[in-house]
Amino acid sequence: MIILLITAMMILTACSRYKVLETKKDTIKIGVSIYNRYDTFISELVECLQEEALKMEKKYNITISLDVQDAAANQITQNEQMERFLERGCDIVCINLVDRTDASNIIERGKNANVPIIFFNRELVKEDLNRWDKLYYVGADAMESGILQAEILIQALQKDMDFVDKNQDGILQYVMLEGEAGHQDSIVRSMNVIQTLTKEGYELEKLADEIANWNRDQGKTKMMQWMTEYAGTIEIVFSNNDDMALGAVDALKEAGYFGTAEKVPPVILGIDGTREGIRAVENNEIFGTVINDIPGQAKGILQLAYSLCYNQPLEDFTLVEGKYIRCPYKIYKKNGE
Ligand code: BGC
Fold first, then answer.
1. Smallest CA separation from ligand 1 atom 6, residue
2. Tens of pLDDT along 36-55?
3. What share of the chain is helix, strand, coil (3-state, %, to 5)?
4. Predicted structure pTM score
């Protein structure tokens, strides 16, 4: 009898959730958990989510309640935040996983409560995404960013090889600043930028590559070490993101580069197009970057949330394989070229 009652209650709860999702209502409650609020890219993405929510409120005459929580780089904290989102009756939950290989707890909770989950930026493996039909991912194609970063350099090399190859030995000596170990964007970007250049016929020599965890200070520390170790021989700094590239700029500035004609800095390449990243390109500090469309991804997340809540088609995006929204990357050089 008790079992029957519990089962009936579970079915009722599930049905009422469906009703909420299918009926037009005035407020959408969205829970957002980010892996670390000190990450520049993520904090700009959160700003864009807030701006986009305001635009959508006006457009659709609804209220969007965004509850943004910082998991402070702790997966257990994020799992608890998920639980609290569900207790507060969120219609949709958006998760920027702390550990992209550890999504099971969150998936199970969402599935039991029948609340769709939109993962973003830190991509979980396909098998995890396929564990339930209401799991989605919004991000970009990491491979494309590596290829475009190489293209910025190829264009420069075709124009003036000596500008990059300062010792004119026909070989490009480089260092690589890598993001977090295990992050899809670190591995894939590092691999593809080098592969693309090699395929084009350029000879490269790796002086060093190290993990700097997407972080400006860590990027600066690594660059300072390399400047001592490889004094005057670094021709290119490939960085998996703008923040670490800015760290390299900081190190070079401290060593007296920029602002003097005698000391010519290496060519520095970033990815993201954060505000500071773009500013550094315009100031001739970073040679070029690849825009990781922050407003586009924020828009994709919220349009998907809206379409799931009101059962409407997506306006500006295609849902690939019924699960993925990927925003294209774009090259950014000085003066918006
Ligand atoms: C961005 C990095 C960011 C990371 C966080 C990447 O896609 O390029 O700047 O730190 O995501 O997960």
1. 185
2. 999 999 999 999 999 999 99
3. 50, 20, 30
4. 0.92
